[in-house]
Amino acid sequence: MHPVDSSEFSVLKAVVEGTAQATGGDFMRSLVRNLCQATGVANGFVAEFAEAKTRVRSLAFWMDGDFLDGQEWDLPGTPCEEVLRGNFCHYPSGVSQLFPHEQGVESYLGVPLRDGAGEVLGHLALFDRQPMPERDNLFYVFKIFASRAAAELNRLGIEQQLRLSEQRFRELFDEAPIAYVHEDKDTRFLQANQAALRILGVTAEQVPSTQGISLVPNTPAAQARLREAFASVEKGTDSAGVVLELRRKDDGWPVWIRWWSKTDPSGRFLRTMFIDITAQILMEQEQAKLQEQNRYLQEEIKAEHNFEEIVGRSPALRSLLNQVQRVAQTDASVLIQGESGTGKELVARAIHSASKRKQRPLIKVNCAALPSSLIESELFGHEKGAFTGAINKRIGRFELAEGGTLFLDEVGEIPLEVQVKLLRVIQEREFERVGGQTPIKMDVRVITATNRDLLQEVANKNFREDLFYRLNVFPLATPPLRERLEDIPLLADFLIGKFAPKLGKKINGIGAESMRRLQRYHWPGNIRELENIIERAIILADGPWLEIGAEQLPGSVADISSAALGNAAASLDAVARDHILQVLEQTRWVIEGPQGAAQRLQIKPSTLRYRMRKLDIRKPG
Ligand SMILES: Nc1ncnc2c1ncn2[C@@H]1O[C@H](COP(=O)(O)OP(=O)(O)OP(=O)(O)O)[C@@H](O)[C@H]1O
Q1: What is the mean pLDDT of residues 604-610?
Q2: What pTM value is reported for the model?
Q3: Residue 233: closest CA among 180, 269, 179
Q4: Is 309 in the pocket of ligand 1 (CB under 6 A)?
Q5: Which keywords are on file for this protein (predicted)?
Q6: Domain span holding position 445
């Protein structure tokens, strides 16, 4: 062990005190200056390898009482070369003779600086115009500070690497295609990368004032997803991610993201990642819409329609067809009123087919066939989980009819609370799904039909007056068959042509007596009733001429007329009531099906129900 004498100690002390507060570049400068001043040598420097191992650059260079900046030099032909090979070198004098490039330098002392693994990083050196005799204390102090300088150089290298890797990480974080957000437990943003800002419509300045949950819309479906997302954080990361629905901060547009989040080790922050899946979700929605449309169209294909054919030449029908042609060219709402079976649906289809919307769908809703609790969601659709039983999202008939026509049959059956929404939708031309909050714009023409006296329903407060006038912009009335008995031969021919081939019969026409009988009948069930009678007559026919006897006309209905005629005091309603009751009792109150009362009465089950309500007919007991 080398004993420390007092002069060594004072040098040591001076350098230690001079460099105590400094780190990094400052430390190097303070080291060379203090070392020179404490040892009395004029010049000194710390240098590290430049890019090539044959060159060095100074980290600090002290010369004749001043610092020189950014010195760089080639090693060959200098005393430094040997030092950087890893050797301690001391030339007490004669440097300029040994190294002709180093004119004016007399003496040199250099020591390599190594990293932890022994690799040379640079060197610390002193040089002078005076000789530098060998002094133990000088070497000793010099070596101590060389290892201190090496440690600092090492640290600077690591710091630099750390800075680079942090910068690389930041760039990666910022430019990653996946969105990253660093947020606190209340989802207040601390940091968000470019992808996150882009997806969420948030600017860099808005990051500190943004809270993730405030971007989730206040709909039952979106909030349920949010709860699911937080539950997945509690459980640990869900590898499949959770789908969340958000609104962009800038324009409020909906975005859907697949979201993963994890609590950081401190437990105070969330590291959240997400990707934008809006395009995928919109495609799924479009697909669902097409599926729904497909399902609806399948049903429609099954139902039979006489598309173009509205048969008849009577003045009453001609006037109706004339109005149909005129109103078809416009987008006006049409209300078709008429008795059951007079062809209201046929007229609605004719308006659609003659309109500019004919390439788009005509969607029908029979309001009497739906339980009142489901009408709203059938019309407007619903979001997943909007009410008990709503498992999947459903697209409503208004959405299906986009660009086309919506035909609301038996509109008088719509409950009052849905009438309010319908009115608003027709006025504002936009609606929301049940349980949803996103307004959906629509371009749909509305045609409605009813066999009720709607104005009477308005007077009875069963139908909103404002909605009535909205729907009744262009009223049409389908005449009952008894007011156009002259159309019966034409209709009968048309119907024979329709049914006979299907039933495999060859029928020429209707016998003269039968035709007279048909034209004397008063047709409470209108054309639907005529259809049924002709179809039945074809089934029963033995020859090419149809014979329709009085017994083939529904005797019971004929009774109504005779009863009504025979008993002037009895109102038609009372007679109808008695008759319906009688048929219901015969069918044991079965309404639908081949043995049901509706079939016997030649009316639709929905119409029968409606009449029962109107005439206050209830099943006893
Ligand atoms: N002028 C017509 N020419 C040919 N067929 C007709 C005519 N009018 C109605 N029909 C036929 O009569 C049947 C009943 O017509 P539609 O369903 O349109 O009547 P509706 O008034 O809508 O009845 P409801 O009020 O009971 O719904 C249908 O099969 C239809 O094709």
Answers
A1: 83
A2: 0.55
A3: 269
A4: yes
A5: ATP-binding, DNA-binding, Nucleotide-binding, Transcription, Transcription regulation
A6: 324-477
